[in-house]
User: Fold this.
Amino acid sequence: MPYDPDFLGTVSVPLPTLLPATAQEAWNGGTPVHHTNYSLVFHQGRELAVYTAANVDGDRLVGGISRRSFTFDPEVPNQIQIDNDRGYKGFPTPPANPWDAGHLARRKDVHWPDEVT
Assistant:
């Protein structure tokens, strides 16, 4: 199940509405990409998320979820995602890319014990 705007129960927190100029720059016209307990909109030019929205249940967080190395989001074209080779654009020699540690959503926040994959 993706991000749930009614997750809190007492108040609804809908996904943000993009301004037209941002929607034009966003991949797929700003249509959210849905994953387990989070959704995101991806910016084509910046090669990062415009936003991510995640449901985090502190009572269900557990340790021991292993960190994975960088992988492309399979729902977004690879060529518009920052990777370990491109890292920080504009630098003559990009440093190691720190974005490979879950820059879209922290894995242990959104994968609860019965949902770890």
